[in-house]
């Protein structure tokens, strides 16, 4: 991996703004052009291409950025809420990220789709393990749950159809799954 000098604060701000705008625009329309993303982010096309040389690089960066934000959020959630409540909030957001990934998946080659899935799997599993451990410690989550099994079960939550009916179904499924975790 090449050594990179730290980015200037304005360059980092541009990168972050591009990622946020790209996330929103590509989630709404997977065919949104890079030029339209740059324009809405308030940067020139050259700035976007300096950070992300092609569409696939941008899509991968959006997904990495969102997963990192999700992983980082877990500690904050556990400081504010009991483990089961924190885990519910976290899985609701993870389901949203999976929908983003699904929406962006068409922009990725099969190899990069697999690579980003493999790259983000470990941090997600570690975070689930952290929730489970916290729940075991306060005796609200039954001991011995496997984080891989939990993630597989949660897959049902983001496989619900789009729209309000699908969101209602996802909420019911999440309730059922989390109830099964209760000590």
Automatic annotation (TrEMBL):
Residues 33-52 bind DNA. One of its GO terms (molecular function) is transcription cis-regulatory region binding. It comes from the Bacteria. The keyword Cell division does not apply. InterPro entries: Homeodomain-like_sf, HTH-type_TetR-like_transc_reg, HTH_TetR, Tet_transcr_reg_TetR-rel_C_sf, TetR_SbtR-like_C. Residues 12-70 form the HTH tetR-type domain. Gene3D superfamilies: Tetracycline Repressor, domain 2 (1.10.357.10). Keywords: DNA-binding, Transcription, Transcription regulation. This is TetR/AcrR family transcriptional regulator.
């Amino acid at each position: 991996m090449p050594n990179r000098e730290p980015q200037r604060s304005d360059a980092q701000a541009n990168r972050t703004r591009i990622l946020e705008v790209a996330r929103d625009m590509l989630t709404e329309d997977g065919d949104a052009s890079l030029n339209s993303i740059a324009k809405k982010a308030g940067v020139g096309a050259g700035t976007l291409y300096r950070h992300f040389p092609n569409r696939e690089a941008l899509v991968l960066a959006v997904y990495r950025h969102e997963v990192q934000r999700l992983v980082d959020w877990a500690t904050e959630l556990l400081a504010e809420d009991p483990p089961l409540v924190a885990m519910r909030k976290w899985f609701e957001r993870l389901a949203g990220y999976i929908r983003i990934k699904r929406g962006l998946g068409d922009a990725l080659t099969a190899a990069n789709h697999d690579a980003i899935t493999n790259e983000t799997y470990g941090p997600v599993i570690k975070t689930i393990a952290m929730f489970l451990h916290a729940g075991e410690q306060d005796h609200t989550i039954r001991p011995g749950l496997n984080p891989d099994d939990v993630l597989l079960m949660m897959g049902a939550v983001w496989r619900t159809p789009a729209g309000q009916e699908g969101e209602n179904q996802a909420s019911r499924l999440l309730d059922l799954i989390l109830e099964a975790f209760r000590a």
